[in-house]
Amino acid sequence: MPHIRPELDLRSGSYDDVLKRVERSLDVRLDRTTVVRKRRSMGLASDRGTWVRVEVRSPEKMTSQGWNGTETSSVLRGVARPSWRQSVSWNDPDEGLTWRADETDFVADHPVKPGGILTTDPELSEDWWATLKSSLTALAEHSTTRLATPHTETITQARVDLAISRACDGQIDTRVEQWSAAHADLNWANLTAPECVLLDWEDWGIAPRGLDAANLWVNSLAIPDLASHVYRDYREELESKTGRIMVLFLCADIVSAPASYSGPLHEPALQAVERLVKELQL
Fold this sequence. Notes:
The protein is of the alpha+beta class.
């Protein structure tokens, strides 16, 4: 029987055996001093002036469309993103895990907020906002068979209904009528500054219209002026029926968690839930 780790978390442990395999497969040398760790991924600079992202998943998280989001994002045009170079993936039956590494162009600018909740206005330039706008417009117009997988789970009508039902009572019209291509994990950790580049494309695909705008707005709620800027720029999407459902979907997830988990996002998310339930009431 393969050994299954109780929880996938790459923020602790060395995983040097994994990194050595990546180096051999991609013919690069990785700079361990540059490592950026997340729960299920690590990123490092290479001696080729590129960036290598290493991700791990358990078999039950694998889908029929694969998990090659970074690779398939290379077909996108008009989107500010790192160019994909090459990749490698392999199965580790002893640990019950599957690994993948993607090499992309190196992005010198840092994420707006590498982790946690953004609580200080990043004071982004008008050029930054224009680049984001044009990128999301180009992305939404792209045709793809990929399905978006926020947090590695495919987004479906059933998933939306379940998340909203956990936080809201009563009959609410949550039917998603418009779908388009989305990044599906658009938060301040996946946007760089001062130049705007969209990072981490593993979850992109078809999603309810407005998911990206809703994600950015919800993740800006701790800074009212920033949230207002996002709302002004994406008012058409956020005020569409599907956009409102996406805001409710994301805010319902926040208010369903302990207030200590979401911190300054909890109260404004709760207010948004109360407003949207009234607007979408049957």
